[in-house]
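Fold Annotation — chain and its backbone
Encoding — discrete vocabulary of local shapes
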Amino acid sequence: MRLRPCGLKLFSPHQIIQTAHLYHHQVYDFSVHKAKLALLLQEYKNGKFDNLREFLEAIQSECPHQFFQDGLRASELKVDFSLEEVYQGTSSYATEVITKIVPLLGEANSPVKDKLIDCCLKIPELIAASHSHRFETGDELKTLDEALELCNKAVVYLEQARDIYVLAIEGRAACEDLIKRYILIRRRVFNLYKAWKKFRPETQSGLTQR
């Protein structure tokens, strides 16, 4: 059934579509087809969307424009969970740990030294593997979860190394710096985890097949 004849019984041609100019970083035209909304809400099963109708129709008079006039637009924001950046970051941190921190722990083997080396080398390996798993085995989230756990362990081992073995101020400062960076990179790995969990390849392919 065509909706236009029914809509014209409810609204005049000039009232059917409500348009508002949103003055943000640039001007956006926001339009609501009031007739279609009214006709859809006439069906009992759609009654739960009445609050949505009120929200859409209130945009013209109640939109908080002031919140959208400052700061960056979404398209201008730098992505904080780029796989490449996460991999490069964890790889460079591992290099710093082995070349700058490990020599400060002395020649003798210690549980902290061995665990720290293994942990820091494993994290970029898991990040790289997660990309392949995403399109092959489908267990990329499990792999990222392991990387998240190892980021936490790296912080613990660096703190232990700082407090037990490193005496020089410069060495302790280097440990502190890496601790902060591992905490930050863990947050980025978690953002990557959330993004991949929301947009999984198998889900998208399943929708395409149906």
